[in-house]
Amino acid sequence: MEPDLFTAAAEERQEKDPAASPLAVRMRPRTLDEVVGQQHLLKPGSPLRRLVGEGAGGPAGPSSVILWGPPGTGKTTLAYVVSKATNKRFVELSAITAGVKEVRTVIDGARRASGGYGQETVLFLDEIHRFSKAQQDSLLPAVENRWVTLIAATTENPYFSVISPLLSRSLLLTLEPLTDEDIRGLLRRALTDERGLKSAVTLPEDTEDHLLRIAGGDARRALTALEAAAGAALDKGESEIALTTLEETVDRAAVKYDRDGDQHYDVASALIKSIRGSDVDAALHYLARMIEAGEDPRFIARRLMISASEDIGLADPHALPIAVAAAQAVAMIGFPEAAPPLSHAPIPLALAPKSTPATPAIGAAREDVRKGRAGPVPPHLRDSHYKGATKLGHGQGYVSPHDLPEGIAAQQYAPDALKNREYYTPTRHGAEARYADAVEWTRRHLGRKRS
């Protein structure tokens, strides 16, 4: 397999017939100033600016860069801009299909180009986290000797997926997800730019909003959908991309959902009430509506954790860990890959037995504290692990439950004012039935008198 190389001949063909290239390729920025988003990496004097020879110090920038960020945030674009700005050869490899042989071929070619023609090479290696340790080791000589300017991209945490020797020799730059406004600006530029659609079509606001939802922060996806919809509109003889045309083109209906308005709260409420009502199918429907509308997955995950705690509680002690696991998956993976693990949670939550006593129990306890019903800790329960505690009577008379056959000591634990106060009244739903039995047994053995 030969590596992908942006040669002068290839660029010449693109200039002669720009329409032959996808819109996302045609709109690829030529300079750092045209890059969308990532302003934290593009400030004057930043490592990327120095890498392309801007500012004091000239082109003496880092010889190896690792770009870490979600798909569609501009990792390939930044590598290409660096090669164009520095007039270097640009070679692109994907760790999905390339191996050590292809890497060595690129490195050998870079050494020949440098020695014979004085031309340096930018090696862009996508998905570097898919390379094994041995494959990543093969890059070290080229980085050490500056035979290539290595720009590696990954969507996974490089501290776990990139070997330490390569990571220590590289500048790590973190790319942030593109905002809706970033994508909106890119779409509007593509509509009018000579390299783009040259004002052949217009984009109404409702269609633009749907495009943003489809994009999900991915610039490449946004431009691909725009190009397809524009082609469909022009085939119909229309100069405006109607919402229905976009829906037909991408085979995805526009979900009526205002992330800052009533729909945001109404659909979220319906999701939680469907889980509470044990309707697993309705719960999945509302979850799907939120996902398709581009709802923040962290918001969904938070609602599921609250539901697991407040609506299910101890009737199924596994509910909250399941919801927490879904939230952790969202935080570590991000959309769209996090959609399946996020959808795992509503199913067991909806099918779980429901119980609420734990929530009012802590509420009642807090209310007593707020009203001043507290009092001092009983002396036998106080800390006795310091000099002088015995003289104060701390810990005296305390009986350890571990020393008793039944594992429970009939002694006072609560302050005097609350010694017979009961907060928790368990149900007999699901797993909480065993808590109901345990509460009855322990209160009886503690000699608790009903308040």
Overview of the structural elements:
The chain has helices at about 10-15, 25, 45-50, 75-85, 100-115, 135, 140-145, 160, 165-170, 180-190, 205-215, 220-235, 245-250, 260-275, 280-290, 295-310, 320-335, 340-345, 345-350, 360-370, 430-445, and strands at about 5, 65-70, 90-95, 120-125, 150-155, 170-175. The chain is of the alpha/beta class and about 450 residues long. Helix 10 packs across helix 11 and helix 12 (about 220-235) crosses helix 13 (about 245-250). The longest helix is centred in the first third of the chain and has 18 residues, at about 100-115. The model is unreliable at about 1-15 and about 55-60 (pLDDT under 50).
Helix and strand layout, with pairings?
Elements: E1 4-6, H1 8-16, H2 23-26, H3 47-51, E2 64-68, H4 75-85, E3 89-94, H5 100-117, E4 121-126, H6 133-137, H7 140-144, E5 149-154, H8 158-161, H9 164-168, E6 171-174, H10 180-192, H11 205-215, H12 219-235, H13 243-250, H14 262-276, H15 280-292, H16 297-312, H17 319-333, H18 339-344, H19 346-351, H20 358-370, H21 432-445
Parallel strand pairs: 2-5, 2-6, 3-4, 4-5
Antiparallel strand pairs: 1-3
Q: How many β-strand runs? A: 6
User: What is the terminal separation in angstroms?
Assistant: 81 Å
Residue runs with pLDDT of under 50 for 5 or more positions: 1-13, 56-60
| Portion of residues within helices | 40-55%
Identify the overall geometry.
elongated
On the 0 to 100 scale, the average pLDDT is: 82
Q: DSSP strand (E) fraction?
A: 5-15%
Largest sheet: 6 strands, mixed
Q: Name the assembly state.
A: single chain
- Major beta sheet, strand line-up: 1-3-4-5-2-6
Q: What is the tally of helical segments?
A: 21
